Amino acid sequence: MVKQGTSLRTIAAAILLSTVLAAPAASFDPSGWETSRDFPLIGSSEAKKGGTLRYYWMSYPPTLRTEGPNSNLSTLNEVQGLIYESLVGLHPETLEYIPGLADYWKISQDKRTFYFHINPKARWADGTPVTADDVVATWEFRVRKDIKDPYSNMMWDGSFEKPVAVSPDVVSVRTKKVHWRLFLYFGASLAVYPAREMRKLTGEKYLEDYNWKLQMGSGPYELKAEDIKKQESLTLTRRKDYWGWGERRNTGMYNFDRIAWQVIRDEELAWEKFKKGELDYYVVSKAQRWAEETDFDKVKDGWIQKRKIMTGAPQGAHGFVFNMRKPPFNDRNVRKAFAYLFNRERLIEKLFYGQYNFIDSYFPGSIWANPDNPKIRYNPRMARLLLARAGWKHRNKDGWLVNDKGEIFEVTLEYGSAGWDRIFKVIQEDYQSAGIKFNLKLIDPATLMKKVGERNFTLHFQSWGAILFPNPISSWGSELADTRDNNNMPGFKSKEVDRLCAEYDLATDRKTQIKLVRKIDELIFRTHPYALAWGSSFSRVMYYDKFGHPEKYFSKIGDASDITTLWWLDPAKEKALDAAISGGGKLPVGETDHDPWNAPRK
């Protein structure tokens, strides 16, 4: 029945949609195609739907866009990963492919053409079918130069020919080269967007109009306009009409009706809000806090549980990144000296309670790390020799190192969170003792991100996540060194690393791949584009005891971000918690340390 006053265009669209949905699917013969149906469940079959999960961000994202400047953020990746879907997924335990938007897939004999059959059930949020043409349009959008995303251009245009919609439900893509990870990238990493929305946009219009909104998705959550409160909060709503609820991969997954992030720029304030019950969980990043501040009454009474959980998740690298494009860090001697003056020993012993390890690789905690990289440890004497070699031999009357021109060795570290104050001030002492005037400046996080993206920095402290199968060209490729808004922050260039990256992409056996990445690691390490910091292989979380979770808490390669997708609000636990709080009672206190996957420590 059509309501009075409905436009002819709306009526026509409704008729077209009903015709599409009612039309019988074209015959599809799955012979010769691959799929996966009996993989281990990722979520728990005991999970329940409902409730709101409340967490926080230290800063509001500078944009919500999926592509373009400032879009490569872990916060945005988490949000967008709940809204958009890829053609296939990667099972976190078996590391085998599982269905996504595609229910079947196959690879040609020469390993260069991939085929995907779109699940006939797959729907966009407005109920229209996901088609092969949507995949084509997504690729077309990703390779546009006017979206100002150089790595996206390099990745998708440099690796793939234009995909072909073989039929409404089958898409194929031909690679431009043999590359063992390209199926993973196109199948599992390419978030698919709706063709009718993306094709109408110029790059300029996209960068402007989609700065604070997102294109329609096909995934389990949606972002409503009224739930975007700039600089304050962002909330996602679970879609009850999501097409994939009956799929095995979604059993026990995506359980919260709403996921709400509020912006709390002060970490101490976030901690206090958690203790007051205004946040549902808290990831303890400070070793001091874990050691000294997590045994208050709510923990002793079992209202708040705390867990230190080990998994096999790859570790990210972080540390001081040098802008190698300009003085003083265009000199390798200076960079190496700076690394020798980075007194990680003192930090780990005095501030971190011995809980962290040294990072000595750009692929730490994994089979990819080169075990033969030199171990750079605090050594002021070696630093002095290297600085003298670079022309910084003498100190002025104020004690600062000067060169032959009388210029002071002075650097300013701009950072975006006051939570780093106590660490950076300790670090400052060691550099200033060595004669380096080391200034600290707290600035707005969005401003900092913009300056770093534009390469308007000298020294910056950067943390990176990690992926299972490294893609070194995305961070170290020479092609990215002199362009903005990509992962090659230091401006690293090496023809030999470029060559090894190309060879790595062609390698098909794991031993060769490991050998090549370790060689790449060695060459990068010798150049010292970063002064590497410290790392860990665990997540420390605290949470109110009202949640259900899988037996092993996180997936095998997961971390605390799995709370968003795997945990659920347990009505019985919530009731027991409320009763304990109102009556001053106690709940059982669980064991703190867990290594549920018996993950190997590299």
Structural summary, described in words:
With 602 residues, this protein is α+β, with helices and mostly antiparallel strands. It folds into three domains: 32-237, Periplasmic binding protein-like II (D-Maltodextrin-Binding Protein, domain 2), CATH 3.40.190; 266-313 and 537-594, no CATH class; 318-535, Dipeptide-binding Protein, Domain 3 (Dipeptide-binding Protein, domain 3, Roll), CATH 3.10.105. 31% of the residues lie in helices and 17% in strands. It is built from 20 helices and 26 strands. The strands form nine sheets. Strands 1, 8, 9, 10 and 11 form a five-stranded mixed sheet that branches. It has a four-stranded antiparallel sheet with strand order 4-5-7-6, covered by helices on one side. Helix 11 (332-340) runs antiparallel to helix 13 and helix 17 packs antiparallel against helix 18. The longest helix is centred in the C-terminal third of the chain and has 18 residues, at 510-527. The protein is globular, with a radius of gyration of 26 Å. The termini are far apart.
Features:
single chain, 602 residues, alpha+beta, D-Maltodextrin-Binding Protein, domain 2, Dipeptide-binding Protein, domain 3, 3 domains, five-stranded mixed beta sheet, four-stranded antiparallel beta sheet, 20 helices, 26 strands, globular
How much of the sequence lies in strands comes to 15-25%
Helix content: 25-40%
How many helical stretches?
20
Number of domains: 3
CATH fold title of the largest domain: Dipeptide-binding Protein, domain 3
Low-confidence stretches: 1-25
CATH-defined superfamily of the largest domain = Dipeptide-binding Protein, Domain 3
Distance between the termini: 64 Å
Q: What is the strand tally?
A: 26
- Shape descriptor reads globular
Structural class based on helices, strands and sheet pairing: alpha+beta
Examine the secondary-structure arrangement and name the CATH architecture of the largest domain. Answer: Roll
What is the CATH C-level name of the largest domain? Alpha Beta
Q: Mean pLDDT, rounded to whole units?
A: 92
Radius of gyration: 26 Å
- Largest beta sheet, briefly? 5 strands, mixed
